[in-house]
Amino acid sequence: MLIKLEKVRKVYRMGQVDLTVLKDVDLEIEAGSFTTILGPSGSGKSTLLHIVSCLDTPTEGRVFLDGQDVSELSGDQLADIRGRKIGFVFQRFNLLMNLSAIDNAALPLVFQGVSEAERKARAEKILTELGLGHRLNHRPNEMSGGEQQRVALSRALINDPDILVADEPTGNVDTKTGQKIMELLASFHQQGKTIIVVTHDLKIAAYGQDIVELRDGEIIDRRQTV
Amino acid sequence: MKKVYFKMAFRNLKGRPLRSWLTILGIVIGVFLVVSLLSLSEGLKGSIMQELKTMGGDIVMVMPGDMNDIMATFAGGTELSRHDIDAIRRAEGVEMVVPTAWAGEVVRYKDSSQNIFIFGSPWETSVSVYQENLGWNLVEGHWPEPNRRQAVVGSMVAEDLLPGLRAGDRIQIRGHSFEVVGILRSLGSKQDDSMVALDWPDFQSVFGRQDGSPMVMAKINEDFSVARVEANIRAELELSQRRTRQDDQPSFSIITSDKATDMVGNVMSLIQLAVFFFASIAILVGAIGITNTMYTSVYERTKEIGILKAVGAKRKDIISIFLMESIIIGFVGGLLGVLLGSGLAYSAEYLVPQSRPVFHIQTTVTILLIFFGMLFASLVGGLAGYFPARRAANLEPVDALRYE
Ligand SMILES: Nc1ncnc2c1ncn2[C@@H]1O[C@H](COP(=O)(O)OP(=O)(O)O)[C@@H](O)[C@H]1O
Ligand SMILES: [Mg+2]
Questions:
Q1: Where are the beta strands (DSSP E) in chain A?
Q2: Residues enclosing ligand 1, CB less than 6 A?
Q3: B275 and B41 in contact (C-beta within 8 Å)?
């Protein structure tokens, strides 16, 4: 058992009104699985993913990662876990516009205290593996959407994380590029990583072996194909 | 502090050049004011102190007017009259009296002419006082004799102002001709080194003056204490002024070397304090500019902060990146401010004498001041950036990531 959520509730206070975005969600994610979280916009997918990936903490309930209760850790402790164990891919790529591809990809290593030479070497290796060897010193605005997403993937992989989370990774690229990205994620899964992908697209969700369907903050269906 | 934070901060500053430079300008102005004004006032203090040091302990100066109004005394046209000078001479313990006067005037030598500081005193008494008490020496020629239209010039006059001038040559002032009999060794102060000294009657006739003097030097007999002779002079002068001017309020100042040093030191310290205070306000305004820019920057880069946190940046990492940015602003501002400030201070040294030959400022731009200016500006940058940096570090990663 890699990740375990127990009665996780997330409430946003909007002025006088409480908005319950996650309603007592129980969820277990196995190490080495490829899980997709499917649901319409506003159903709480991103919120769930953030809690699963230690970016956010629940209002109530517990979250365990590798058996450790992470629901009440400090911001810096969570940052440390993210930096060591989790790689992030976002819908809008979220690259730093004034850094080159190689510096963007190497960014997580900066906060792990890795030397500059090693950062560069590792970033160059991963970018080259993803077919961006000719783009190392380009800024994001000099690259296509697919290329930017591959830089973002490189950044997510650079610290060799156990878990790779992706929030609508195909949302900002065309269908063909989207398929390529999903195939890449599948290949990382083959290499033994735990993959968690959030999507509103059934076709994308179908890449997963474990499909969690979310609606209005509740899990309404779960299909495990393996 | 990691090198990569510096790189990131530097890139961010470069990414919005106009705003960065305007913020830097705020600090430049503040540091420029501190460095230039402090150097100038330090230089002024140094020049005056040096002037005072050449005046030995057994010489007192007597000047018209109240000492509390010393600037008016230097600037104003008041003089001690011939009666006043006689009264000083009468005071017990006064060994010798040297009335002096000065003015700026064009001096001609062969084809060259220069506006030069002219100093007058009776050779009869002054030559010995200059040699024994003020440390004058000749590098060329001989000491002048009274009533023979002989002049002595400072070392820079012969080297710089009237090149080629040698002992034995003649110079012209307002159509009067004088023989330069001696050239002085440098006295260590630009003002003294660039003067032409005349005999008292010659000075009077060149400038058409009466026998009055704006400053009288009195040499004290070594058997008397300075304080006692000061009291004697005061008594004699009060008596004389009451009698000759029917004046109830005698007005003159007796300045001993100790008193003068104290007074100038105090006045200059006050001036420097005021200068520092006002320049600090300029720096404060610059600091507020940095804080403002950094808050704007944190606000604009909320999303970026979310990304950094998502990939593992901790509070101290975020604080370092933003602090680095404001420290760079402070440092660059400090560097430019120091350069401009010391530039102005140095050029003042060369600009001032041309317009007013009477007064030289030897500016002192000390390494300490430069170092302090840059360190201080960097520190100001760091302090000004602290609260914005803390706000950045306290952002919740999810909130920052959702920010558009
Ligand atoms: N910080 C927040 N404050 C208030 N409401 C929020 C906040 N974040 C998300 N929400 C709300 O929670 C609901 C679920 O959001 P989200 O998890 O992003 O859904 P999804 O990713 O499925 O579109 C939405 O209605 C959204 O408006
Ligand atoms: Mg979402």
A1: 3-14, 17-29, 34-38, 60-65, 68-69, 86-89, 163-167, 194-199, 210-215, 218-224
A2: A 12, 14, 19, 21, 39, 41-47; B 399, 402
A3: yes
Asked if A87 and A112 touch (Cβ cutoff 8 Å), the reply is no
Q: How far is CA B187 from the centre of its chain?
A: 18
Phi and psi angles of residue B110, each rounded to the nearest 5 degrees, phi first: 50, -120
- How remote is the CA of residue A201 from the centroid of ligand 1, in Å? 18
pLDDT of residue A226: 66
Phi, psi angle pair for B90, to nearest 5°? -70, -25
pLDDT in tens, B235-267: 999 888 888 766 567 788 888 878 878 888 888
Distance A199 CA to ligand 1 centre (A): 14
Angle at A93 between CA A2 and CA A168, to 5 degrees: 55
For the ranges A161-165, B9-13, B32-36, B128-132, the maximum mean pLDDT occurs at A161-165
Say whether A79 and B15 touch across the interface (CB within 8 A).
Answer: no
Predicted TM-score of the model (pTM)? 0.73
Distance (Å, whole) CA B182 – CA B141: 4
Contact B311 A107 (CB under 8 A): yes
Residue B344, token pair as written in the block: 């102005």
Q: What are the distances in angstroms from CA B215 to CA B55, B137, B304, B324? A: 13, 23, 72, 58
Q: What is the mean pLDDT of residues A112-117?
A: 91
Residue identified by tokens 């080194």 is B193
Complete domains list, chain A, with CATH: 3-224 (3.40.50.300)
Select the residue of B2, B303, B315 nearest A75 (Cβ to Cβ): B315
pLDDT at residue A146 is higher than 90: no
CB contact under 8 A, B3 and A159: no
Residue spans of the domains in chain B: they are: 2-50+262-402, 66-250
CA distances from B330 to B323, B367, B383 (A): 10, 19, 10
Judged against a pLDDT cut of 60, whether residue B1 lies above it is answered with no
Q: What is the rounded distance in angstroms from the CA atom of residue B126 to the CA atom of residue B146?
A: 10
Angle among Cα B383, A98, B308 to the nearest 5 degrees reads 65
B355-364 pLDDT, tens per residue? Answer: 443 445 566 6
- B173-186 per-position pLDDT tens digit: 999 999 999 999 98
Q: Which residue of B has its CA nearest to A77?
A: B314
The distance of A12 to chain B (nearest Cα, Å) reads 12
Whether the CB-CB separation of A4 and A28 falls below 8 Å is answered with yes
Contacts of A92 (CB under 8 A, 6+ apart): A171, A172
Give the CA radius of gyration of chain B: 30
CA angle, corner B43, sides to B38 and B46, nearest 5? Answer: 125
Length of chain B: 404
Residues B200, B204: Cα–Cα separation, whole Å: 6
For residues A177 and A161, the model is more confident at A161
Average model confidence (pLDDT) across chain B: 86
Closest CA to A97 of A26, A151, A164, A169: A151
